[in-house]
Each structure stands twice: as C-alpha cells, then as structure tokens.
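In this section we walk through a basic example: taking a raw amino acid sequence and producing a predicted 3D structure, encoded as discrete structure tokens. The instruction is simple. Fold the sequence below.
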Amino acid sequence: MLRPRSIAVVGASATPGALGQSLLANLERFAYRGDLHLVSATRSEIGGRPCLKSTFELPEGVDCATLAIPRAGILEAVQGCAARGVGGVIIYAAGFAETGPEGQRLQVEIARIARDRGMAVSGPNCLGHINYVDGIPLTFSSCAPVPLAGRRGIGIVSQSGAMATVFRAALHPRDIAISHSISTGNEALNGTEDFLDFLIEDEATHVILMLVEQFRQPQRFLAAARRAHAAGKPIVLLHPGRSAAAQASAKTHTGALSGDYEVMRALVAHAGVVLVDTLEELHDLGELMIRWPSRPRGGVAVISDSGAFKAMVLDFCEHSDLEVPEPAGTTKDSLAALAPDLILPTNPLDVTAQSLVDPDLYRRAMKPFLDDPRYGSVVLCVVLSSPTHSQRKMAPIINALTDFGPPKPVVFAMMGEDSEVAPEITAQLRNLGVPFFRSPERTLRALAKLAALRPPQAALSAPLVAPADERLPSGVMPEYAAKKVLTAAGIPIPRAALARDLGDAQRAVAQIGYPVVLKAQSAALSHKSDVGGVALGIADEASLAAAWGKLHADIARARADLNLEGVLVEAMARPGVELILGARNDPDWGPSLTIGLGGVWTEALRDVRLMPALLAPAAIADEFRKLKGALLLTGYRGRPALDIDAAAEIAAKLGQFVSAHPEIAEIDINPLVVYPKGEGVIAIDALIVAR
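The resulting token sequence is shown next.
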C-alpha cells in the first residue's frame, strides 16, 4: 500500500477540485510509472485512459486502491476490492466512527471484510500517504515531488490529515527531507503502530514525527518505541488531549476513546520518546535531530551579543534540563583574553557590541567551547536587526563554521525574528548542518526537550513479572486485608491485629505494646477519619476503653448504616516524612507507579512523579530526587538525609506486585513514612481496589 506497483483510482474525475482529479494530478506531477487503473461510474475515459465502472472489474492483485468517493459508495467499493485481491485500500471519506453508531457499524464492517481477505486499510477519514522515496503520492492534497537527494529523511505519522499537511509545509521550506508522510485517520484496521513498524524498518527514514490523538494498541507502541530507539531512530510525539475538553474533541475527530493522559506521558517518555506540547516544538525537534545524527552529550554553550539575553537564558535553564556549565581552565582563560575588562568569561557569553567592531570575535569565542569536551553543543544567539548587520556579522560566522567543521552540534538562533535575512545565509548554515531558528526561546525549548530524552533501557531494568497464581477478590479491600496482602509482598507495616470487641483489643495491645492507634475497618469506609473512625496516641488501658467507645459512637452517628468488620489495633509509628506510593493497571497502558510527597502535601502540591511499574530501585530513587520537595528528603537546613534507597526498594516491590496482579485497578499507600538514612520506611495506611 505504501510502495504500490499498481494503483486503482476509484472515483477518478476530470472535474477541477474533485478528489479523484486532485489525486490524478498529483500522480502525474510525480510522474508515477506504475500501472494505473481508473474507476468511474460516470466516465468511460479520462485523459485518454479507459475507466472501469466498479471495483469488481479491476484486474486481479492491484497493490493499492484509493477510494475518492462519498461514504455511500465505500462499502460496495471495499467489497469489490476484496473480491479482486487488492492489497490495500485508502479511504478518504469521512462520516464513520467519528459521527456515531451508524458510522461505527459501517467502519467495523469494512474492517471485517478487509481482515477476512488479508487486505490493508488506511482510514477512513484520512488524507492518504505520500512516499517521497519512490515518488508516489496517494493523497488528494496538492503536493509536489521533493526527492530526498541523499539527505536523511523524516517520517511522519499523523492521525490528522490536516496536521500531516502542516508538517510538510513546515519542514520542506527548512530544506528538510521527508521520506513518508502518512495520515491514518480513523484507523479502521491498520493504525499508527503498523505504520510506525514500517518506518522503523525503512532505510530512508532516520527521525519519526508523530501526532496521535489516541493509541489503539499502547503496549505495541511502547515496544515499537524501544525498538526505534535501539535502531537510532528517535520519535518525537505530539499527543493532544491533556484537558477534558480536548479528550471530548478527539472522540468527535477520529472516533478515539481517551486513556489516562498522564500515565501515557510517563510511560512513553520512559520508552525513549520525546514528548512535545506544541507544533513548533515538534518541527524544531525534528530539525535538530535530522541535522544532528548523534545526540549532543554535555552542557550547552551560549554565545550572544546581549547582556539581557544572558540573564534570560539563565532563568530558562533554572527550570529545565538544560545545563550551561561555567567555563573553567583553559576555556575560561581563552574567553577572558577575548576583550579584557569588556567581555566576562562566562556561559552564556556576552560578546557585547564589540562584535560589530570586531566581527572575527565570534570565531575566537566559539573555538574554546568547541574544543572543550564539557560542552556538547554551541548556540549562537545573535541580533540581526537589519540587512547591514546581518551581512557584517554572518559572513565571518559562516566562514568560521566552514573552517571549524564544526566538530560538535551548533545551532544559530537569531534575535530579531521577522528581520530580513538573505536566503543564501540560511542556506549556507543549513548546508553546514547548522539549524537556523528565528527565535532563541524556541531554540532553548527544543534543546531542553532533547536534553531530557532518556534511554528506554531504564524501563526494562527490572525483570518482567509473571502473573500471580491467585487473583485478588474484586472490589475495595479494607485496610487490614490490604496490609496483609502487602506484607506478603514485602511491604513493611506496623505490628497490628484486628479486634472484634474491646477484649480482643486489650489482648492485641498486650502483644503489641502501647502506644497504639485504633482504625475502623470496612470496605465502605475509605476515609476513616472523616467519620471519627481513627483514634491516635492511645497510651494506657483506660484510654483504650474510652477511645473504643468513642470511635463506635462517632461512627454510629455519622454512618448508622455501616457494618464494621472490626477495628485495627496498630502500633503507633514514630514521626517521619510522609510519602505516597501508588500503583495501578491502566486498561490501555498497563501497570504504572506513582511516587510523591504524602499526607496533606499530596493534594495541596500535586508533587508526584509517574513511571513504569517495573523500574529498578536505583531509577526510582532518581525519580524521588526529581520531586519538587526533594530537599525534604536529601537533607535541608541541618536535617538528616532520609532513606530514599529504602523507599525506592519498597516502591519497586509494589511495582512488581501490581504487575503480577493485572486485576488490580489501584493501590495507594499513604502515608509511607520514611526515616533517616539507614532506618528504613513503614507503610501506615493502604488501599487496594481490584476489578
């Protein structure tokens, strides 16, 4: 379907603007040399080519049929294609699953027919594909041939046809080659994951840009993403749908059903995918990656001719993964010698207006950074406010870059945005492998995204877990039962016993020792303290009896309908810093783990991090250190560093447990109290909900 030797144009037309006419015009423009079969219900010939009346008249084994006809004729056309052994069909028409039950029924029937006959389907509700490698445009969107001519190619996969067009319109003017542009639409049968598999194997594709509103096979996508990373083909993903309104829009657009957006972001990032939030970032990351075959290692050196911009860079880097190391040693000495008492040897480096007097200053400023292995890339942020300034500054910069090679990635980010720059200047930079940006902020955002790219091996660093032999009972598990299960999984909890009456409680305390806590137990009572179901700091027998009576009286007033299974008598844990651990099995994305500050901080600050459930303890410890409140864990104002390693070990055990029990909807341990380094952690409260 993507490299067809023969094509059927169903709905061929000579009427300007008709889909079939636009498709034929594209094929002629690309000089398609394969067999071409026209199907038209109203014409006997078009442009000297004979027309068949229906798909049932096609010769046996046509590679690809493009259905440029209204929805009403699609089902019959697909039936004809299936009967004649067509390899794949592209359905442009809208009005299927995205419109409601009737459209969904029709889409399902098309998929059934194609699946039964081994026929591929792209769409419906798509703009088709463009194969720039072999010169085959299978779209009605007007396009021109842009051969790769030996350049590294970007592959595009977009569920939105309009956005696929936008990507092409953004990349081609930057002199970036596109190998394949693929619009998948509603994905009745073949979807994002199928086309991604193709691009990973395609020799002309080196970077993959994706816009996906819904992954229909998330686990398959994660596996493909790791495979793409191993093949040296980075994936940049734009996934709209963070808001509830956007999720509702996705349903009406491509018939998609939205999954858990934050879980998706965490798991795809750990699989080595670069997630972006805007079209600008998608295009900019694509350019950096296609021009730089190897990802920069080390910090970023920024050379500018504005002191104010230097401060802006430092502000940006404080809240991103972008590192701008200060110059040291011979690098600092060389920079200090540029213009003593005028240019300070810092990073970012401000060469001041001296660059107008001494344009060769850029060469001398670049060389120390290019020679220093601590810097993986160099950014030139230069004011180009007029053609005169542009010519005076750029000629020596281009000459220097030509002489240097350059030996490491360099990006040019002009300040002045829409100021006139001669086309030959941008062409010369791009011929040197130097991306040209008209916005320094966009440059920094793209570099920060690139710096945050993580290798996917971390997601597989813990061994896979086989499903448990026994399923957990469905429903909400009360705390005492949840803790019993978690204890068997290696999660430490306080000494405790379930009491049915005061006598049971007294006997339990004789074994546990004071002080203790009383907690009412019922599957219907998730928030015990809200109804007086918790009594803390019980220190003697009299207090125990009083607390027992008050707890039952308070619950009777608040929840007269509630039948308690008992009261948990538990040793009162000593104070520490409260964390939260959570785990869940998303119906689409599978098991994931959540860590964060616990107690009241959980809802107040939302200071949490999501990750794959099978992350290794060392990787989980790194995630703890990335929390906003990490200072509370690592030592702050004389307080001792806490046992993050122990917390990470427990989190890893929880991840293994939830992975072994796919029936678990969610587990919450809140709080998990962590103590100073070497003193461990303890789970104070727990909730398990199983399907």
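Looking at the output, two observations stand out. The first helix runs from residue 19 to 29. The first strand starts at residue 6 and ends at 10. In the next section we compare this with other chains.
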